Amino acid sequence: MATPKILIFDVDGVLVDVRLSFWLSALETMRHLTGKRVAWSELHKWKSKPGNNDDWNMVSNWATALGRPTTYEEARDAFQQFYWGKNGKLGNVRKEKLLVSARRIEKWARRFELNLFTGRTRKEFSYTFDRWPASRQFRTVITMDDVPRKKPYPDGLLKILGERDPATALYVGDNVDDALSARDARVPFMAILPPGTFEYRKRAARFRELGALALLQRVTVLDARLPS
To answer: How far, in Å, are 2, 192, 195 from residue 185 at the CA level?
Structure first.
């Protein structure tokens, strides 16, 4: 690939470890709604389905499939009490961890224009990023509140690019919806896929099928895959 001028990052699973925030909240919500203790492997299967980058949508689909018809709004409201907390109990959002240092973000910002396209709401994004010094390095941040259609639609990427050539950008994500967004926006894509990930080979094949230029163990190895 040509050296990109614009780097666009997904947030969850790329810049932030959300296993104990969003993912754990999804499992707890499923137990709350269905009365069943679902496994992490089931979470990964549902998360890998197109359209399930939005955890509320995933929970709605999953709970309904298990015999507990659940609307998107019901899933969202149930999920919130575990993610944000309720009645004085701390929420799982406090367990999030950043996966990349501010220094590395600043290093990238000296070479590229940096942007974010995330499936988070603006509130969820602000809670984690407003206190992080490196957040000022991102020129444009697109959340689910900023576009009429969420991932896997390419609206967020297209809004960041404007009239610019998609080939001058690179999108880094970790979900099939990220890959679909990049494909439909004609933006080159690299996938975060750590070794040991559930159904690694199946997910790797799917990413390659959707045009991923590379599979990265973590975002910090991106430098080794970019032309100097």
So the answer is: 17, 19, 28
Residue type, 183: R
Question: Can you read off the two tokens belonging to residue 62?
Answer: 């999953």
3-state secondary structure of 131: coil
Interacting residues of 7 by C-beta distance below 8 A, sequence separation 6+: 108, 112, 113, 114, 115, 169, 170, 172
- Which stretch of DSSP H or E encloses residue 47? helix 40-47
Cβ partners under 8 Å of residue 85, min gap 6: 91, 93
Report residue 95 CA to chain centroid gap.
Answer: 16
Pairing of strands 97-98, 16-17: antiparallel
What is the pTM for the complete model shown? 0.94
- pLDDT by residue (tens digit) across 61-114? 999 999 999 999 999 999 999 999 998 899 999 999 999 999 999 999 999 999
* pLDDT score of 41: 94
- Residue 120: which residues within 8 A CB-CB, separation 6 or more? 11, 12, 143, 144
In angstroms, the Cα distances linking 34 to 20, 48, 59, 68, 141 are: 20, 21, 10, 6, 35
Name the residue type at position 189: F
Bridge pairing between strands 89-90 and 85-86: antiparallel
